[in-house]
Amino acid sequence: MSLLTTLNDDMKTAMRAKDKESLQVIRMLKASVQNEQIKLGRDLNEDEELTVLSREMKQRRDSLAEFEKADRQDLVDKVKKEMVIVEKYSPAQLSNEEITEIVKAAIAKTGATSAKEFGKVMGVVMPQVKGKADGNAVNAIVKELLQ
Fold first, then answer.
1. Which listed residue, 19, 90, 113, 142, has the most CB atoms within 10 A of its CB?
2. Is 93 helix (H, G, I), strand (E, B) or coil?
């Protein structure tokens, strides 16, 4: 079942339950998926759906950091609730240990030995963890292992 079908079904459920918060987030996700379809001129494959979900989650993480910095607890709570809803549609996230193993394999594959080869390693790792790990977490692990 495609992400769009799932979102439509969940949107109907949220409407019936009068769950306005979930409904709002589901509508935003659906709009993002549809905008991407329009941009590409075709239905999205699984990877492209994952990219849209990752983008939505990243926007919320960035917003969360800004709201915490501004000490806006009301907005922090709202964004955290939205993130829970978006996570429901995202694949399970990799643990730091799993990311570390992928990074070690990528370092061995590329033969990277210094921080100068950071880009090479990231180029190998990111397609493997797409949507399953936060880019900042991967970035930190790669930097740590290349030092």
1. 142
2. coil
More confident residue, 6 or 90: 6
Contact 100, 145 (CB under 8 A): yes
CA distances from 59 to 50, 71, 110 (A): 14, 18, 31
Q: What is the Cα–Cα distance from 34 to 4, expressed in whole angstroms?
A: 8
| pLDDT recorded at residue 1 | 66
- Global pTM? 0.74
Spell out the domains of the chain, with CATH numbers in brackets.
Answer: 3-89 (1.10.1510.10), 96-146 (1.10.10.410)
| Cβ atoms within 10 Å, residue 25 | 24
Rounded Cα gap, residues 98 and 32, in angstroms: 29
